[in-house]
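pasting for ref
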Amino acid sequence: MDRDRREFLDALLETASPSGFEAPAQRVWVDYVSAFADDVQTDAYGNAVAVYEGGDGPEFLFGGHADEIGYMVAKVNDDGFLHLTPVGGSDKSVSKGRHVVVHTDDGPVNGVIGQTAIHLRDPTDSEYDDIGEMTVDIGADDAEEARELVSVGDPITVAEGVHDLAGHKVAARGLDNRVGIWVAAEALRRAADRGVDSTVYAVSTVQEEVGLQGAKMVGYDVNPDAAVAVDVTHASDSPEFPGDKHNEISLGDGPVVARGSTNHREFVAAVRDTAAAEDIDVQLQAAGVRTGTDADAFYTSRGGVPSLNIGLPNRYMHTPAEVVDQRDLDTAAELLAAVADHEAGRDGFTVDI
C-alpha cells in the first residue's frame, strides 16, 4: 500500500464513527473520493455515494459501512459516573479497564471503564459483567460536574490507535469496517484509472452494526445491476480461532468470495472468472444462511439486486485490537475494479433456469 493510500486508511481509523454518529468519518471518505469521482452525494442519514460515469455497461455498487461498535451514555449517577448501553455488538469481555472517549457536542471527554483491581476480585468468579452494569469514570466529583461535561446519549468509543505489526499487518479499533469503505473508494479510483465502460458507485453506508439500515436506504435509491458489500470476515489462522468452527481463511491470502444464500450464483461466477483472468488470488467462504453484512440488505432491495459479500480476513473481530493484512485490501480493490472492467459488456446477472 503506497503512502497516500495508507494515509487515507489511517485517517479513517483515527476518526471515531459509532453507529448513528458517522458524520466525521463520512467527511474523511467524501473528501478522498471527491478527487476522482464524477459526483458525490449524501442522503438524510449520512450515507455517502460517489459515482464514476462509465459507458453503456452495467451499474455496479461497491460498498462498505462506515460505522463501528461502541457505547453510549445511558445515565449519569449521583457520584458522577456514567452508566453505559452498547452500540452494536460490543464485547463485554474486552470492555473493562479501557481508556475511552466520550464524543460530546463540545468535543471529546476522556474517561476509563472501571475495573475492580485483581487483588479485590473473587478469584473463583469468571463471569463478565454486562455492559449495562459497567460505568465510565471521567474524573467528575459528582453528577453536577459530570453533566457539565457530558449528556445522556453521547456516544463513546475505545481510545485505541493504529499500530503496525510485522510484515504487512495492521492492528486497530474499527477495522470493521473502515477497511471496507477504503476498498470501495479505492475500487472506484482504480476503475476510473482503467476507464472502464461500466458505471461504478462507491458507497459508504451508515448503521450497519445496528441492522444494515443504511444499506436498505442505499440499495433502494441507487438500484444497481449488481452490488458488492465489502466487509471483514473471520480469519482462522490464529490460536484464538475456535477449533469447532470451520473455514479456510488466512490473512494475506487474498479477499474472500462468499458462496450461498445472499450471494448471487452468476455474480459469484463472474467475480471468480475475473480473478482467474487477472491472476488475483481469492479465498472462498460458505454462507449457507446469511452473510451478516450489507449484502443481506442489498440483495432484497426493490425486485432483487444480484449481490455478493467480499470478505477481508480479520483476526479478533469486535475487539479494540482487530488485525488485517494491508495486501488483502489492495487486492480486493484491484479485483473489484477488474470486475467492472471485465463485465462491462454484460447485460445482467439473471440466473439461467
